[in-house]
Write a structure and sequence with these properties.
The chain is of the alpha+beta class. It has a domain of 112 residues: OB fold (Dihydrolipoamide Acetyltransferase, E2P). The chain is built from 3 helices and 5 strands. Strand 1 and strand 2 form a beta hairpin. The radius of gyration is 21 Å and the shape is globular. It starts with a helix and ends in a 17-residue tail after the last helix.
């Protein structure tokens, strides 16, 4: 009986530490001046957040390569503790990540999960379909397109269900 209590006292904390270790660490350091607002909130009052630092993520909508820089339109989603987009939550607006030079569109495919760290650089009026839209601009210092394995890391891969099998004779 005594051994079981000692085991429980030692094993339980080790179990919790092991589970916590499964979640990847954040990829970007959060600075003291990092803006906590969503892209939608920034679009409504861009002057209030001028030059603030952001770490935003979501899904790539498209890439535009211009003469001296590239722009990636992103549909924003909240980020988890590892700064991966959480797609179960609703979108929180759109923004444009501005990257220096040429961004290969194949490296930023439409729908890919992405996280961007950078500085707010104003906003631009544009369109989403036929609707007018204000896009916050982020001068991206860093960007990361998440692989499917990275998106799954730290999440339990356990499923339950009832299935029907079909056999061929």
């Amino acid at each position: 009986m005594r051994h079981a209590a000692v085991f429980a006292r030692l094993a339980l904390p080790a179990l919790f530490l092991g589970l916590a270790a499964c979640a990847p660490a954040p990829i970007y350091k959060v600075a003291s001046d990092t803006v906590a607002a969503t892209p939608m909130q920034v679009a409504q009052a861009p002057e209030q957040y001028a030059h603030g630092q952001v770490i935003w993520g979501g899904r790539v909508v498209g890439v535009s390569n211009l003469a001296d820089h590239s722009e990636i339109e992103i549909l924003a989603y909240p980020l988890d503790a590892s700064q991966r987009p959480k797609f179960g939550a609703g979108g929180s607006g759109r923004f444009i990540a501005v990257l220096p030079g040429y961004a290969e569109p194949m490296n930023f495919p439409a729908g890919a999960p992405i996280t961007v760290a950078g500085q707010l650089a104003g906003s631009r009026a544009g369109k989403v379909g036929e609707a007018d839209y204000v896009f916050p601009l982020v001068s991206a210092a860093q960007s990361h397109v998440w692989t499917p394995d990275e998106m799954r890391a730290g999440h339990p891969n356990i499923g339950f269900g009832v299935g029907v099998g079909v056999g061929i004779r």
